[in-house]
Amino acid sequence: MPEEIIPGYFNGNVVNSKVAGNSSPIPPRTPSPTTSTSLDIYTYETIIEIANFLLQRTSIRPKIGIICGSGLGHLAENLTEADSFPYEEIPNFPVSTVAGHAGRMVFGYLNGIEVMCMQGRFHYYEGYALSTCSMPVRVMKFCGCTHLIATNAAGGLNSSYNVGDIMIVKDHINIMGFAGNSPLQGPNDHRFGPRFPPMNKAYDPELIEIAQNISKEMGMENDTHTGVYICLGGPSYETVAELKMWSILGVDAVGMSTVHEVITARHCDLKVFAFSLITNKCITEYETEEEANHEEVITTGSKRQNVLTNFVTRMVENINSLIINDSM
Ligand SMILES: O=P(O)(O)O[C@@H]1C[C@H](O)[C@@H](CO)O1
Ligand code: HPA
């Protein structure tokens, strides 16, 4: 018999992780890039334990979770009354190994609105399973979040995109999933979500429209696009031939994250908004001295931090209004 979700479970309250009829102990785990496998599964009970660990140490009860991309960690620095948890101090949590990812879960207020924020994410190329990379999204859900804002740094493949532009993600191509690599690979625990979740509305159309309006209000309509993102395995940047191929297939921006987080979020019914900061232009010609590099990615994030903070703050305000309206 399938077990029931505890009533009121997903409301950010601290709950007992012992689910009726399931008293299996939580195996201690210390995930590290070198020990992860493609089926590195965090159980329902472990996710509850992690969420409870956090909720017991903060009074913030967020409805909105934010993931900061490479060089975009400053978003978390704008939180007030912040409670910050280094990943290495959270039981069973992986650690960030990439420059530009501080490696902290930060709870706090963004312009008076409660949020939780991953200041640094996990990538497949770090050696973590995709399910491990996106595990914190489930933790957000169990901390009470109903909405996810995923941000990333990406290479602009669409030739009309410039460095520093924002691309609102309207869709993705899950190329890693084409090869069978999914964060949902393995046995499905229906308490997280269904075996076969749909993805045709992965990026919430209402939130896309709100973001487009915010961009106009900020006078950024010429620097804002709405396009298709692809997550590649990395860590090597793309060859010219690869980029030409993705361009033909309708990709606008190229990165190494986000897609598995969004799939996990939709699986557990979080509403998703995602955007890319275009940190570099993809190099699609052979005759050039330029080369993609991570320093440029971080530098662009830093240069655009005020604009991005303003953009995300306005998104959070709008999402919060939707949440309040929905609850009335
Ligand atoms: O975490 P994100 O997706 O923002 O980081 C991008 C992808 C790689 O991790 C890195 C390459 O420069 O930036
Ligand atoms: O050009 C890129 N390619 C892949 N990932 C990236 N993340 C930032 N820029 C890029």
Structure description:
The chain is α/β, with parallel strands linked by helices and 328 residues long. The chain has one domain (40-326): 3-Layer(aba) Sandwich (Rossmann fold), CATH 3.40.50. Helices cover 29% and strands 20% of the residues. The chain has nine helices and nine strands. Strands 5-8-7-6-9 form a five-stranded mixed β-barrel, surrounded by four helices. The two termini are 35 Å apart. The site of hypoxanthine has 13 residues, from strand 5, strand 8 and strand 9.
What are the defining features of this structure?
single chain; 328 residues; Rossmann fold; 9 strands; globular; binds the ligand O=P(O)(O)O[C@@H]1C[C@H](O)[C@@H](CO)O1; binds hypoxanthine
Question: What is the mean pLDDT?
Answer: 90
Alpha-carbon distance between the two ends: 35 Å
Strand tally: 9
Q: What ligands can be seen in this structure? A: the ligand O=P(O)(O)O[C@@H]1C[C@H](O)[C@@H](CO)O1, hypoxanthine
The figure for the number of domains is 1
Strand content: 15-25%
Structural class: alpha/beta
Q: How many helices does DSSP assign?
A: 9
CATH superfamily: Nucleoside phosphorylase domain
Please give the CATH class.
Alpha Beta
Percent of residues in helices: 25-40%
Strand order of the largest sheet: 5-8-7-6-9
Radius of gyration: 19 Å
State the CATH topology: Rossmann fold
Unreliable spans are 1-29
What string gives the helices and strands in order? HEHEEEHEEHHEHEHEHH
